[in-house]
Amino acid sequence: MEFLVASAIAVLTAAGVYLVLRRRTFPVVLGLAFLSYAINVFLFAMGRLAIDRPPLYDKAAEGYTDPLPQALVLTAIVIAFGMTAFVVVLALRSYLETGIDRVDGAPDAETDQ
């Protein structure tokens, strides 16, 4: 199971990095979303899921689940949502002002001819 989770994190990270390095703005936004998903899965896997254990320490319980990774993932989800909304608005504003949806702002080669 650890190999499967590690492979999923690797695939999400690789796809995110590949899409962030593209020329158009929409793949960059998708790449940032994939990277945030990879980070969320990594943070959640870091906490080691413990089944049937309370999230708080209790003397009667034999063990407890660490609630910190779940809180970190919840915070990361909120931050990623805000970041994605900001990047989408920034890309849309850039496209509306320049008429080009490339990240570097250079015109397309086929439109120059």
- Please provide the count of β strands: 0
Sequence stretches where pLDDT stays below 50 over 5 or more residues: none
Helix percentage range: 55-70%
Mean pLDDT: 86
The 3D shape can be described as elongated
Q: How is the main sheet built?
A: none
The helix tally amounts to 4
Q: N- to C-terminal separation?
A: 54 Å
Strand coverage percent: under 5%
Cα-based radius of gyration, to the nearest Å: 20 Å
Q: Tell me the structural class.
A: mainly alpha
Order of helices and strands: HHHH
Describe the fold and architecture.
- With 113 residues, the chain is an all-alpha fold.
- It is 67% helix and 0% strand.
- It has helices at residues 2-20, 25-46, 68-98, 109-112.
- Helix 2 runs antiparallel to helix 3 (68-98).
- The longest helix is centred in the last third of the chain and has 31 residues, at 68-98.
- The chain is elongated.
- The model has no long low-confidence stretch (mean pLDDT 86).
Short description:
This protein has 113 residues and is mainly alpha-helical. It contains four helices and no strands.
Short key terms for the protein model shown above:
single chain; 113 residues; mainly alpha; 4 helices; 67% helix
List the helices and strands and how they pair.
Layout (H helix, E strand, L loop, with lengths): L1 H19 L4 H22 L21 H31 L10 H4 L1
